[in-house]
Every structure is written in C-alpha cells, then in structure tokens.
Design brief:
9% of the residues lie in helices and 48% in strands. By secondary structure, the chain is mainly β. The protein has three domains: 3-72, membrane protein fhac (Ubiquitin-like (UB roll)), CATH 3.10.20.310; 76-158, Ubiquitin-like (UB roll) (Roll); 230-526, membrane protein fhac: a member of the omp85/tpsb transporter family (Porin). Strand 4 (75-84) and strand 5 form a beta hairpin. Helix 1 (14-24) packs antiparallel against helix 2. The two termini are 60 Å apart.
C-alpha cells in the first residue's frame, strides 16, 4: 500500500492527500500512472485557487512505497515596477511616484505571500483605474536566485501628463431670405485640457469649455473646472478616500417645462447653473462606494432669448401665448441661490459571468437644502433603487457561454419641503420609462418605477437579446408640484411600455411600444439601462 506525504506546502489541505491515496489504492504498485494522477490532483487544487505556480517539482521514496511529493508554491520574493519609455527602454522610475502604484496593489501581492492570478487581476484593474497609464501588465517570473520563488514585475507605460483636445462643430443658421450662406455658418464645439498627475502624486486637474457658438459664447457657454485629490486621509486609509472640487457653469433645457402632447407648442425654458461643488468619496470595495459633500450654486431660468423666465408658458387655441404657467423657481424672479448638502451610498456586488452581468446593486441618494438667499427652499430630496441580475441557469465549469439573466428593478423617489419645479422628478426617458421622452409622462414630488428584463445570449453574435416591461407612476403627487406642470402641459402622470432589443457592443437597439397611446418606436441608445 502506498503512503503519500507532501513537503513544501503551506496551504494544501489533508483532503487532497486523501484523494491521492484513494487513487493510489486502485493499483498495487507505485506506477507512473499513480504519480501522474497525484500530480494532476495536487496541481488542480492550486489552479482552482488561482495559484498558477503551485506544482510538484519531484517525488522521493517510490522504491519503498513511502512517496514524498516536493511542492513549489510560488512564493513572491519581490515586486518591482518597470516603466516603459517611448523609445522602448525600461526604467525603474517614471514621472509617477512609485508609492502611488504600490498603494493600489492588493496587500496579498507582496513578498512572502503566494502569487495568485486573482491578485494579479485586481492589481491590473486598480492600477489601470488611476488613469495614469496607457498600458499595465503584471508579469510573474521565476526568481533567478531561487527558482522556487517568484518575482512580480509591474510593467507600466505612462500616459502623457498633459493633454489638450478640441472638437469643432459647424451649425447653419438662416441667412437673408431664409437661405444659408457662408456668413450664417456658426462655429461651435468644446475645448478640454487636463493634467493627470500633478507633482507625480496622481492628483488631477481638468478644465473644459463648450458652446454651440464661439462667436457669441455668452448664449450657452458651459465651463467646468475639476480638481481631484486621492487619499486625503493618508495613504494607509483603507477606504481610499478621495476629494473632488468642481467649479461649474452649465445650461440645459428643462424637461419640466417641455415634452408631453404639447411639446411643439411650449416655449423652451433653459436652466443655467453656476457654482462650486465639494465631494468626498469613500471606497469600500471595487464597486461599492459612498460620497458626501455640498453644492453652492446660483440657478437662473431663462427663455429662448436668454431673458429671465419666472413662469412656464404654452400656446392657446387662439394662437396667443399663455405666460401664466407653473413657476420656474423659488424666488419668482428667475434666480435662486442655494446651498445643498448631498450624500449617496452604492452597494454593488455585480460581476461578469462569461460576459453576462449578475449580482445585486442598491443605491440611495439624498439632497438636503441647507440655506437659500431667495425663496427659503428648505427641502429634502431622496431616491432609493434596487436592481437584481438573477442568473437563470448554471454554467458548466469549462463553458464560455453566458447564462440567461432576469433583471428586476425598482426605484422610488420623494421629497419633503419647498422643492423648485426644475428640481422635481421628471418621469419618462431612457433611464426611467424608456418608451417615452424625458419628462413626457409628468413632473412629480414622488414617483415609483418598476422594470423587468429578460436577457438571452445570442452565441453567434457574441451578445444578448432582451425583452422588457416597465411602468412608472407619480403616485398622485404631480398636483403638489408648484403650478402642477403635469396638468398644465396635459401629461399622463403614469405610463407603461414593453419591447425587445439587441445589444451590439456599447449600443442598444430597442423596439418599444408606448402603452398609453399604443405607438411603437425604434430607439438606438448607448450604454446600459440598469
């Protein structure tokens, strides 16, 4: 009877040795087949744990039946950084301080621990997430001084520290007689500048300017300046707390005062916001985070001519314009100033299984108005959402086929206090009830939405098709919004939709049926719904 023992192992459980002995009992002698089976069983255990260097180097004692297996586990002797220069040479130092990279590595990817491909993948993901490198590789290799140990090289190709991008778009405005000419060409676009690595400490500064008309930028000039500092509480902070300061000026068309069946008869109302925002973000896991901060802003509501707009409007049957619509803000003058405290928490355990997203995601956000220079808008605005990606079928161990997935989603929002109409919840749109445009269903102080989506893999296209149903309701709270924009613009206040679609890379092609009016439309959208 064969006896089997191992040496050099720090993690191999007794059950693995027992499994080898069970295999050995099938033969009276210690044969090559028995040794091969022992090697396969032991190394399969290490591979399942992600320990790719775990292997049996050799056997002793075959002549006596007291077999001793010598195991190499791949203990890390050192971790080094290798910076690839533009000319292809490799240097031990780069523009980025080395400790910036080391602090992102898993604690288990360190000398004295066993090399694991799971740690390598986490290191690859977290270091690349710094946005400082064009390429990141984790390269393990046997230590030249001790072949039983492993040297881990982190190979890095740094991105340019400073970048500037410009995008130009030409618009055409009617010239004399309504016909376009060269003078009527309107240059618009955006300019973006960024410094990704201030002082080599991974602190980032960026600025962007955008407008649809560089010749008259005051009409819709958008400016955003952002400074990000990671590890504000020190490099040993387990939450990797980061601080972001943003100065902004933006102009957006308000869906509160447009959309619905009167969309062609409603003068547009633009909401201009300018101010500064401070946010602190704590990271608890790869995707679970919490942030808190404050926004000090000045909000202007304007008409299409850029004049202050204190109330919404609509066209009457006689062709006249009714300007006695819902108030656009708190003050009644078209200008509000507010200080708002903000916080949000995200618990996200989702992961990709052969390309299919499975797991759970929960989110909670709250805005609390702390002070106002106009209209005393003391209010609390909050939302909560829960999404489940349910795997409907087990995947065989060595299969690369994604499983079918059932997505169940629910979201609630509410507010307490004096909330301005432009901050009320708008119902409908690609991230609410996707068969409608943004705000088409109504404007509410409380809402509830629910959705179900079945995703089925399409192997030949390496993607998935899906069918879905969604419903959204204002819970009867539309009448509590100042001026009741839902009733004023004759919106439904609730709606449902169903449809089917196909995911093609980052694009979703969806055929959707609007159940309020029985109309069907084809949409092409980017990104994910959930």
């Amino acid at each position: 009877m064969m006896a089997f023992k191992v040496t050099g192992s720090t993690i191999l459980p007794p059950t693995v040795e027992e499994e080898v002995l069970v295999e050995a009992r099938k033969s009276k002698y210690t044969t090559v087949r028995v040794l091969a089976a022992a090697k396969r069983i032991v190394e399969s255990y290490y591979n399942e744990k992600g320990l790719s260097f775990g292997t049996i180097s050799h056997f002793d004692g075959m002549e006596t039946g007291q077999v001793l297996a010598h195991i190499i586990e791949g203990q890390i002797s050192r971790v080094s950084l290798q910076y690839v220069q533009n000319d292809g040479t490799v240097q031990p130092r780069g523009a980025t301080n080395s400790r910036i990279v080391y602090r992102e590595l898993p604690k288990t990817l360190a000398p004295g621990n066993l090399y694991s491909v799971h740690d390598a993948k986490q290191a690859l993901r977290d270091v690349f997430a710094l946005s400082l490198f064009d390429n990141v590789q984790v390269v393990p290799r046997p230590d030249e001084q001790d072949q039983a140990k492993v040297v881990v090289d982190i190979v890095l190709k740094e991105r340019p520290l400073k970048t500037a991008e410009a995008e130009l778009e030409w618009g055409i405005a009617p010239g004399e007689g309504g016909r376009p000419d060269l003078v009527s060409l309107i240059p618009g676009g955006s300019v973006f500048m960024e410094h990704r690595n201030l002082d080599g400490q991974a602190r980032q500064l960026s600025a962007s300017v955008s407008t649809s008309n560089f010749l008259a930028p005051a009409d819709d000039l958008g400016v955003k300046v952002e400074y990000t500092r990671p590890y504000v509480y020190g490099e040993k902070d387990p939450q990797k707390t980061a601080m972001k300061v943003t100065a902004f000026n933006s102009r957006k068309l308000s869906p509160t005062f447009c959309g619905g069946p009167l969309s062609d008869e409603v003068p547009a109302v633009w909401v201009d916001r300018s101010g500064v925002k401070l946010a602190v973000t704590e990271t608890y896991s790869r995707q679970s985070k919490a942030s808190y901060g404050a926004v000090l802003q000045e909000v202007h509501t304007r008409d299409e001519q850029g004049q202050a707009c204190a109330a919404g409007a609509k066209a009457l049957p006689n062709g006249m314009l009714d300007t006695d619509g819902p108030p656009t803000g708190h003050s009644g003058t078209g200008t509000d100033r507010t200080l708002i405290g903000q916080a949000n928490v995200t618990r996200d355990t989702t992961y990709f299984l052969n390309g299919a997203l499975v797991g759970a995601r929960d989110m909670f956000t709250v805005d609390q108005a702390l002070f106002s220079g106009t209209g005393f808008p003391v209010y609390n605005r909050h939302t909560a959402s829960s999404t489940r990606f349910i795997q409907l079928r087990d995947v065989p161990r060595k299969s690369a086929a994604p499983p079918p997935v059932l997505v169940l989603h629910a979201r609630y929002g509410g507010c307490i206090g004096n909330l301005a109409s432009y901050d009320a919840f708008t119902l409908g749109g690609p991230h609410s009830c996707r068969g409608y445009s943004v705000g088409e269903l109504g404007v509410a102080r409380r809402f509830l939405e629910a959705a179900a989506e079945l995703r089925v893999p399409v192997p030949k296209l390496n993607t998935h098709a899906f069918a879905f149903f969604e419903h959204c309701t204002d819970l009867g709270s539309s009448k509590e919004v100042p001026g009741n924009p839902t009733a004023y613009y004759r919106r439904a206040g609730a709606g449902s939709c169903s449809g089917v679609g196909l995911k093609l890379g980052a694009v979703r092609a969806e055929w959707v049926r609007d159940m309020n009016q029985g109309q069907s439309n084809l949409f092409v959208r980017f990104g994910e719904r959930f």
